[in-house]
């Protein structure tokens, strides 16, 4: 729980939480991509994104903003997390979209849509971490889902309506699957997620020669990203891969798991200062101050 002094507030979760353990894994970058592939299979959810988001013109900026929000909720102070949730709720409250199938206008912050986004996100985080080799027991997974009800509340959901165990998440997926399908928005989103334009610095496009730019687009950065995207797709549930036109074979699960385990080993070998963001570092400093004061 939050400390009395805001300077030493450990936020919604704290160092003893499963949430902190899960989100310390750099391999969760694969989980974020996996969740987007899943979310795109919900016709209304993907229509809402397509009609309200500039993800095609600024995909990397949107990714950074989303990652910052998640980091703030997980590692920020209680006040920072609540303020981030307040801003997000205000943004969603102003958004509307049109259902391509029915022509009906709907709100982006409908509970069913918020719940779908929340569940696919947290399920992707903990599933990816576990399949990558993180030491998480069944009880840890259930605890993580229960803890993440606090994050669901920040976006405007009633925590009691949000799955809080692995069994409840599995049951939720069974209930929602009849609503899922591949739409034009889903297909376009999948293609875009798999092969987005590579990120550029603020002055790179006009300073880099065409040959160098092509080398960057077609060289190691592009192939590294394609490998990550392929792993994210392979980690999807079999039913989701089938909706995308792929195969839900066990061999795909095995190859994806081997790939994500290798990626985790590689990322964990990178010096921590290169993978730790400022929000995480601030949380660790607050935790260290509290521990020293005991």
TrEMBL record:
Example GO molecular function: oxidoreductase activity
InterPro entries with a match to the protein in the record: MPAB/Lcp_cat_dom (IPR018713)
ER-bound oxygenase mpaB/mpaB'/Rubber oxygenase catalytic domain mapped to chain residues: 20-252
Signal peptide bounds: none
Coiled coil: none
Superkingdom of origin: Bacteria
PANTHER family in alphabetical order: BLR2777 PROTEIN, ER-BOUND OXYGENASE MPAB_MPAB'_RUBBER OXYGENASE CATALYTIC DOMAIN-CONTAINING PROTEIN
Name of this protein: ER-bound oxygenase mpaB/mpaB'/Rubber oxygenase catalytic domain-containing protein
């Amino acid at each position: 729980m939050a400390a009395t002094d805001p300077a030493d507030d450990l936020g919604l979760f704290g160092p003893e939480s499963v949430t902190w353990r899960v989100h310390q894994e750099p391999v969760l970058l694969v989980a974020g991509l996996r969740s987007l592939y899943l979310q795109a299979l919900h016709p209304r959810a993907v229509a809402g994104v397509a009609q309200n988001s500039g993800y095609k013109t600024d995909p990397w900026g949107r990714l950074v903003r989303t990652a910052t929000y998640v980091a703030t909720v997980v590692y920020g102070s209680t006040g920072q997390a609540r303020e981030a949730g307040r801003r997000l709720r205000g943004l969603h409250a102003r958004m509307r979209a049109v259902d391509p199938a029915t022509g009906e206008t709907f709100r982006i912050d409908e509970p069913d849509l918020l719940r779908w986004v929340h569940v696919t996100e947290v399920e992707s985080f903990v599933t990816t971490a576990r399949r990558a080799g993180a030491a998480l027991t069944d009880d840890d997974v259930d605890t993580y889902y229960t803890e993440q009800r606090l994050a669901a509340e920040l976006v405007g959901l009633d925590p009691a309506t949000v799955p809080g165990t692995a069994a409840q998440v599995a049951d939720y997926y069974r209930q929602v699957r009849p609503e899922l399908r591949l739409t034009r928005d889903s297909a376009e989103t999948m293609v875009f997620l798999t092969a987005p334009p590579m990120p550029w610095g603020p002055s790179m496009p006009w300073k880099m020669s065409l040959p160098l730019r092509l080398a960057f687009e077609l060289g190691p950065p592009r192939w590294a990203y394609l490998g990550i995207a392929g792993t994210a797709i392979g980690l999807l549930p079999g039913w989701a891969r089938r909706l995308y036109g792929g195969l839900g074979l066990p061999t795909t699960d095995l190859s994806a798991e081997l790939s994500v385990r290798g990626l985790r080993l590689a990322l964990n070998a990178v010096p921590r200062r290169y993978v730790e963001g400022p929000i995480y570092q601030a949380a660790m400093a607050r935790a260290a101050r509290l521990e020293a004061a005991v």
